[in-house]
Amino acid sequence: MSRLRVAIIGAGGAGLCAARHVLSRPKIFAPPVVFEQTKSVGGTWVYKEQVNSYGNGMPIHSSMYRDLRTNIPKEVMSFPDFPFEKHLPSFVHHTEVRKYLEKYCDHFKMRNHIKFETTVDAVVPVRVENGWNRLAWDVTTSDGIDPSPSVESRFDAVMVCNGHFFDPYIPAIPGLDKFTGAVIHSHNYRSAEPYAGKSVVLLGAGLSGLDIAMELSQVNAKVVLSHGQKPLKGPLPPGVQQSPPVSKVLDDGTLEFQDGSHARPDVFLFCTGYNFTFPFLDKQVGLKVKEHLVSPLYKFLIPPAFPSLFVVGVCRAICPFPHFHIQTQFILSVLDGSFPLPSQEEMEKDIELDEAARRARGIATRHILKLDSEQWAYNDELARLAGFQPLPPYWSNLYESNKVFRSQDMLNYKTYNYKVLSQEEWTVQGPQGLS
Ligand code: FAD
């Protein structure tokens, strides 16, 4: 049998991980073709000072800001088979993550398989006689030069690794067009200095929202952190106060909050996350994005009617690199036949039951992909089904402990340093001597 040809869309963390595992099984898979629209590997970790567009009209992909340090310690942020360098602190600057991904790419000899400055424009399923599951994929690409020649190639399988943090989501707020100050999304935030001394209403208290609130406080901005969660308990940075979400903008440009209070800030900053977007995917695939749920995907990966298409990394509130490592190995077990997929009907039923069970537990549709602490059971399930090594026991425990420290000590948790002692044990040194 001829080797399977796999296309990988994107050379960020997910695409590189996919390529690394495909390359590790040369008897079954031909070297993959990785399509990357930019000149670099690393995806969102390739910081760009400019905002909006690269200059050739292509929108900036990265959502990094200048001073960002990771919010997950390197001990569990890394791919399990490729640790960060030992000398680095647990929470590294984004430039170190980019270097790490470059090294990962070179260590596993992926670079020659990446087609840079090549954008995937269309991915179309084709019914064939002799393909994997009688299915193949025509992938059309262009190089961004105008007029751009399109190139079409055929593959047995496609792994979609295009990232999910580049298309800003701004919630519909009645009257938003009446706001007369600056409106900005965190995708276009780079550094705090332009906000020095300004009043800012920052909507959203996720990881980026909190991080940016801290940066703004350091330049004496007056920040109202507007969010719909329970009030945050840990000490907030100086100059930052909490309020409920903004409900509307009045005719004179004043923001009204859900508790009836008002503000007229200089800046309205949205840290409200991103839209999923798969503009290249043919309609026949039937993948729907509704209320931040990408569906139908068996095990959050596979459209049941097209089981040689894999959408990697759509889950949220996860530990991304290890998650990609697990998902990719599962995918390869599907493709090499070591994990035979259930029938289309069974996969559809599984998705239906899984989504219904989550809703019955009070999880709103928009949060179904937010795995959070359930990610460990999910990872273990994929490893068990496909018969590969699960993550070592310390992984979940250390990651979850970091979450607790982060909520208790938002101002300092990135100064903690972790040390893994064995497969089960680890210690942490923080400013309060936690261990
Ligand atoms: P990306 O890194 O976005 O890569 C996708 C790639 O696909 C890009 O290179 C893009 O150019 C390419 N691409 C897209 N469309 C096409 C196309 N049509 N054709 C060709 N190429 C295409 N994770 C952590 O583990 N720790 C952290 O501390 C952390 N902090 C974060 C902070 C911010 C501000 C953000 C935005 C994310 C953070 N993350 C963090 C999550 C981060 O997104 C993941 O770690 C991971 O890098 C995502 O990898 P990816 O490959 O899925 O997507």
TrEMBL record:
Cofactor(s) listed: FAD
InterPro entries: FAD/NAD-bd_sf (IPR036188), Flavin_mOase (IPR000960), Flavin_mOase-like (IPR020946), FMO-like (IPR050346)
GO MF annotations in UniProt: flavin adenine dinucleotide binding; N,N-dimethylaniline monooxygenase activity; NADP binding
Family annotation (Gene3D superfamilies): FAD/NAD(P)-binding domain
Keyword Oxidoreductase belongs to the record: yes
Tree of life domain: Eukaryota
Keywords attached to this entry: FAD, Flavoprotein, Monooxygenase, NADP, Oxidoreductase
PANTHER family for the chain: DIMETHYLANILINE MONOOXYGENASE
Protein name, entry field: Flavin-containing monooxygenase
Annotated gene: LOC116224730
